[in-house]
Amino acid sequence: MENVIIVGTGCAGLTAAIYTGRANLNPLVIEGNQPGGQLTTTSEVENFPGWPEGIDGYSLMDNLRKQATRFGTRFENNLIDSVDFSGDVKILKAGDKTYEAKTVIISTGASPRLLGLDSEKKLFGTGGVSTCATCDGAFYRDMNVVVVGGGDSACEEALFLTRFASKVTLIHRRDELRASKIMADRTLANEKIEMCWDSGVTNIEGADDGAVSGVSVKNLKTGEEKTIPCKGAFIAIGHIPNTQPFADALKTDENGYFLAEPGSQIRTNVPGVYVAGDCVDHIFRQAITAAGMGCQAAIEAERWMAEQE
Ligand code: NAP
Questions:
Q1: Which of helix, strand or coil describes residue 92?
Q2: Residue ranges of the domains in the chain?
Q3: For 214-268, how does the pLDDT look when each residue is reduced to its tens digit (9 = 90+)?
Q4: Is position 136 annotated as part of the catalytic site?
Q5: Is the distance from CB of 126 to CB of 44 less than 8 angstroms?
Q6: Choosing from 56, 84, 118, 132, which is the catalytic residue?
Q7: Of 20, 233, 256, 266, which cross-links 27 as Cys (Cβ 3.0–4.6 Å)?
Q8: SS (H, E, C) 267-299
Q9: Fold match between 2-111+239-308 and 114-235?
């Protein structure tokens, strides 16, 4: 039986691996479809403390992985599809394979919801389509960008982007924002933000050249079509937390995010099972906050195991 199994290899999971590794717990990390998590899809990370010149997302995750390996972390590539946390031994299943552990740290992240366009897929990342203004906004100084969405995230992204971009067009499929009143008011009052109401995105232009040149929209009421020239397209239509295989065993909220126990960010309703990063945090969603939660989860797992012995 393993001391600790960590599911997920984003900032939260790898930080948990570094800490549990250094505590001599010989952690096993199960990595799924996207080793390294969301940061591997972003270009430059300029806000992770300790990298004054910035670091590309892939290198940052590669460094974390090397650091975890140095302290005895083992990695296995598998997709956990169900769990049984009802007994003292925590059971995780991936197809025919069964894993057993004393403690489990789940850091499976969340996947940004996308529009589902081919052009969006082709231009994602270095092509100019992004799901993270905090990560990529600074690359669009004095340029036009668009944000798609109408919730708090879209407003937050649009407002953040006004610090750099010359103009931000917010494309929303209805004529009213879903965002909280304060965020909506701020967004509508910002002179750099232009609203494009009642509009669905039909294409992101520039796929053949490898760089966004505009976003084509269709007015859902009038049928009118137009292309908004821009260099960056930020998609902010919500996230889908990767919690499904665990949802029967652990408490989740109405949007599927893990629910931590009151007074804790990372403790679940099952003693010895912890959650960290974007699968539980839908507010901050930063590499550094995920890393912090991974650290907390590792320390709590270590203490919990010591208490049981
Ligand atoms: P959200 O509230 O679910 O909003 C998603 C937005 O995207 C909605 O406006 C929705 O349109 C639109 N949308 C969804 N699917 C779409 C599609 N296929 N095509 C076009 N548009 C689509 O998601 P969120 O903004 O990420 O917020 C998630 C949660 O985090 C919320 O509870 C929010 O309050 C919270 N949050 C809070 C803060 C903050 O307080 N600072 C910041 C960020 C997020 P419709 O409106 O037509 O459905």
A1: strand
A2: 2-111+239-308, 114-235
A3: 999 999 999 999 999 999 999 999 889 999 999 999 999 999 999 999 999 999 9
A4: yes
A5: no
A6: 132
A7: 20
A8: ECCCCCEEECHHHCCCCCCCHHHHHHHHHHHHH
A9: yes
Q: How far apart are CA 32 and CA 23, in angstroms?
A: 24
> Confidence class of residue 285 from pLDDT cuts 50, 70 and 90?
confident
Of 135 and 229, the structure prediction assigns the larger pLDDT to: 229
- Place 46 in a pLDDT band, splitting at 50, 70 and 90: confident
DSSP summary character for residue 33: S
Q: What atom of ligand 1 comes closest to residue 176's alpha carbon?
A: 46
Ligand 1 atom closest to 172 (CA) = 21
Closest CA to 302 of 280, 276, 274: 274
Q: What is the CATH number of domain 2-111+239-308?
A: 3.50.50.60
Is residue 84 flagged as an active site residue?
no
Chain center to CA of 111: 6
11 is a catalytic site residue: no
Tokens of 42: 């972003």
Rounded to whole angstroms, the Cα distance separating 153 from 130 reads 13
Class of domain 114-235: alpha beta
pTM, two decimal places: 0.77
